[in-house]
Specification:
Chain A has about 750 residues and is α+β, with helices and mostly antiparallel strands. Chain A has 21 helices and 27 strands. Chain B has about 100 residues and is α+β, with helices and mostly antiparallel strands. Classes of the chains: A alpha+beta (about 750), B alpha+beta (about 100).
Chain lengths: ~750, ~100
């Protein structure tokens, strides 16, 4: 979509007003997923597999059904006749349905087997205990390298797609290879080649609000669903397909959302609640417990990676090669392709090759987690670059600047870059006081770059003006990053009215055109672009109404700072007419005034970040303290800088957890060992330093105000930056995440044993 | 002489485009890094690729993104293409 104008001078964009949803959230008025109720509501509960891999031979629900409090029980049989794939879902349909409710086989510890609706939550949970399931336990595998081995148990025969070359294990279900040049020739030109192996464990998005929904579905195929999601149109489409009803007959409303980070981009409990409601003819509420969230919703993929990079003595990368094996749970979908494509993207490489494997195992289906795949790739690649810099005694920022991708550079994944801001982030990092600050004994400093593609996606926005000159905006992207404020600022900029005079509402699926999920860092870019265009549509109509009132031609009116102004040789001499004066009489000049925009914006633009980290490692306990952290990232244009800084800080905080503590731990029995926050340790306030931020603004040519997505790029560099800082502080490099105290202690002891 | 563009189909006047493939696709296109087809839009290009190289159909049906002069087009089939464009097929992008 070509953009006919680009604005660079702003009056409201770039300011930091209070968030419009803040008071509701701090006073408890905001309604999150579990806050929705309905008269006559039942409570649902889900029976989950205790086995990592087992054939379901028989399910007997008769004892549970005999309880008077139990009003409905559903199993896979309640979905089996309803598989009528909606457009766009064909290829993934078995995947989604199988994950929502197991068919013949339980594929992971926590896989849903049956569900109950009862008059109380306690009665529902008690009823689960009376459901008898006869399992035949099967061999399982939960490790990515073991799942690719010749003798590994097959998770699902025939799941591999066209991309997988012959001869690979059936658990390898997708294969990606890209790059250019001749890597062997490139390595031959290097003065030093470093080749290392890395692994990372699966981590959960760790959103504070668990999945929750309230479903109401009648026998007539008409229903409503209130749920906590990043994309209610996608929920609508999926649930309608799985329940065999018409999409438009299911109205889905997104609740406020207590975090998503990619983990709420698909359905888990929503189709189950709808099936229970249809069977019981009552509304059914389902709320996941935290152990259910950990066991049965998407963590990110775990990885096994090999990286080889060659460099000249003066710091030019001559060749780079990466192999990325991603374990994505019991279904295809691990982002092996994205991992591979992001891995070397920050650099201008003449010779590069990246290979990705999507591998199934007996774990929960992985889900997107902020720039899926990119943080792990950056961890491995940037660790090797750091190692090369140390061995060649080169400054890590200077080396990255020498090799940095710029406008016109051929990206590692193929095409040339448009205008990008990596160099600007590196220059800002080099000039930042953090980079030259002295370190205390025992501390180390690390840096890393990171890259993410960003996304546009289908988007609809509707904007209507009120008689008093205020404005209501309906958007379809749930607000998980402050988008209400950003939309209001952008509309205020175009209309020329105060930010406070605009109310932004997250519309339900019955009241607005289709909207893609809030993912891919797309909301401020795509919904923002649509908001600007909708506001411009309204401005055109406002100008026309002013022309009617003045009795002059339409083209003799221009819009300036919230006023219609006569302009040009055919305009009369009139005082500027404020927006409120036009809307006051709009019923008499043609009727209500609104603006619309529907499109799939295709200019999202990629983005880059550079992080600087100081870390201190206690040699006696192996505990790491992050003592200073600076995020420098290109936002294109920061609409609400405080929110942009919040995204930067959030990405860094999650990265600190991922790098130092968080991991899925599976036992020999294939069961998750740490399915509560006491055992799965995300960072708390005392684990985090103040996180400094620098917003770089290199405008995205694909957005009227220059916006690039910021939510995902901010989690790409932390794993590597922290690993490089820990390596500098401890004097030993770890090749596995998380760098938890036991792992660091073991590495230190191994090094002490070597050096005597 | 300026090239002639047809708005539909791949007729005699339709311009030839060079389409670069990610290397994993080479084995479905006779080992080539780049192939030539006639089209004026992304949708037409995909149809022409499937016609000329049927082995590419599963990859194209699975969904691809297309980079046109560096701008990544995730979905739009009506995006215009011209012979001077740098055109790369990319794996379908996803986000989190």
């Amino acid at each position: 979509m070509a953009l006919d104008q680009r604005k660079t001078d702003f009056t409201q964009v770039g300011t930091r007003p209070n968030r419009p949803d803040g008071l509701d959230k701090v006073t408890g008025k905001a309604r999150f997923g579990a806050d929705i109720t309905a008269p006559g509501m039942l409570f649902g509960a889900i029976l989950r597999s205790p086995h990592a891999h087992a054939r379901i031979k028989h399910i007997d629900t008769s004892k549970a059904e005999a309880l008077s409090d139990v009003k409905a029980i559903v199993t896979r049989a309640d979905f089996s006749d309803a598989i009528k794939p909606a457009p766009g879902l064909e290829g993934e349909q078995w995947n989604v349905l199988e994950n929502v409710m197991a068919g013949d086989t339980a594929l992971y510890d926590g896989h849903a087997i049956a569900a109950v609706a009862a008059t109380s939550a306690l009665a529902a949970r008690d009823a689960l205990k009376l459901i008898e399931v006869e399992y035949e336990v099967l061999p399982h595998v939960t490790d990515v390298d073991k799942a690719m081995a010749k003798d590994a148990p097959v998770i699902r025969e025939g799941a591999a797609d066209y991309s997988v070359p012959e001869g690979m294990h059936p658990n390898v279900v997708r294969y990606h290879e890209s790059g250019h040049g001749d890597v062997e020739a490139g390595f031959a030109k290097a003065d030093l080649v470093v080749e290392e192996h890395f692994v990372t464990e699966a981590t959960h998005q760790g959103y504070i609000e668990p999945h929750a929904c309230l479903a109401q579905l009648g026998q007539d195929g008409k229903g409503e669903l209130w749920c906590c999601t990043q994309g209610h149109w996608y929920v609508q489409k999926n649930c309608a397909a799985l329940l065999g009803i018409e999409t438009s007959q299911l109205r889905v409303t997104a609740s406020e959302i207590g975090g998503g980070f990619g983990g709420k981009t698909t359905v888990f409990i929503e189709p189950v609640a709808l099936a229970l409601s249809r069977k019981s003819n009552r509304p059914v509420k389902l709320v996941m417990s935290r152990p259910e969230v950990f066991r049965a919703t998407g963590p990110t993929a775990s990885t096994s990676m090999d990286i080889k990079i060659g460099m000249t003595a003066d710091g030019i990368i001559t060749a780079a090669q990466g192999t990325f094996r991603l374990q994505g749970g019991a279904f295809p979908g691990a982002p092996a392709d994205m991992t591979a494509m992001c891995a070397f993207a920050p650099y201008d490489l003449k010779n590069v090759q990246q290979i990705g494997y999507d591998v199934m195992s007996n774990r929960p289906k992985q889900a997107a987690y902020r720039a899926p795949g990119s943080p792990m790739a950056a961890y491995a690649v940037e660790s090797v670059i750091d190692e090369l810099c140390r061995k060649l005694d080169l400054d890590p920022i200077e080396v990255r600047l020498k090799n940095a991708a710029r406008e016109g550079t051929k990206a590692s994944y193929g095409p040339k870059f448009e205008r990008i801001g990596l160099v600007e982030t590196l220059e800002a990092a080099k000039a930042h006081p953090h980079y030259s600050a002295p370190l205390k004994p025992g501390q180390g400093r690390g840096i890393s770059c990171g890259f993410w593609f960003n996304h546009g996606g289908e988007t609809s926005v509707s904007l209507s003006l009120s008689e008093d000159g205020t404005c209501q905006i309906s958007v379809g992207t749930p607000d998980i990053g402050g988008s209400r404020a950003s939309m209001a600022l952008m509309a205020a900029e175009v209309l020329g009215i105060p930010y406070e005079s605009i109310r932004v509402t997250i519309a339900d699926t019955a009241t607005l055109g289709y909207n893609d999920v809030s993912h891919g860092s797309r909301v401020t870019y795509a919904s923002g672009l649509a908001t600007i265009k909708a506001a411009e549509d309204a401005v055109a109509k406002l100008s026309k109404r002013a022309a009617v009132k003045w009795g002059i031609p339409e083209d003799a009116v221009k819009w300036e700072d919230g006023h219609a102004v006569p302009s040009g040789p055919n305009a009369g001499n009139f005082d500027p007419m404020p927006l409120a004066e036009i809307t006051r009489d709009m019923g008499k000049t043609g009727g209500p005034i609104s603006g619309h925009f529907e499109a799939t914006p295709e200019g999202a633009g990629v983005s880059f970040a550079t992080h600087i980290v100081d870390a201190e490692v206690d040699p006696e306990t192996g505990k790491t303290a992050v003592t200073r952290y600076t995020v420098i990232q290109d936002a294109g244009k920061a609409i609400h800088p405080t929110y942009v800084e919040g995204q930067f800080q959030g990405g860094a905080a999650q990265g600190i957890g991922w790098a130092l503590n968080e991991e899925y731990i599976y036992g020999e029995d294939g069961r998750l060992q740490n399915a509560v926050f006491l055992d799965y340790r995300i960072p708390v306030a005392s684990d985090l330093p103040m996180i400094d931020t620098v917003i770089v603004e290199v405008p995205n040519p694909g957005h009227p105000f220059g916006v690039r997505g910021v939510g995902e790029t901010s989690i790409c560099p932390p794993l590597a930056a922290i690993a490089n800082a820990v390596s500098a502080a401890a004097g030993v490099r770890l090749h596995a995440l998380p760098m938890s105290p036991p792992r660091i202690l073991a590495a230190l002891e191994q090094q002490r044993a070597k050096t005597g | 002489m300026a090239p002639e563009y047809s708005t539909t189909g791949q007729g005699a006047g339709t311009p030839r485009l060079t389409v670069h493939l990610w290397s994993g696709l080479r084995r479905f296109a006779d080992g080539q890094d780049a192939v030539e087809v006639q089209a004026t839009t992304i949708g037409g290009m995909i149809a022409a690729l499937k016609s000329a190289y049927p082995a590419l159909a599963p990859a194209l049906d699975a969904g691809v993104s297309v980079a046109v002069d560096g701008r990544i087009i995730a979905a739009s089939l009506d995006e215009p293409l011209r012979p001077q464009n740098e055109i790369y097929l990319m794996q379908r992008l996803r986000g989190g």
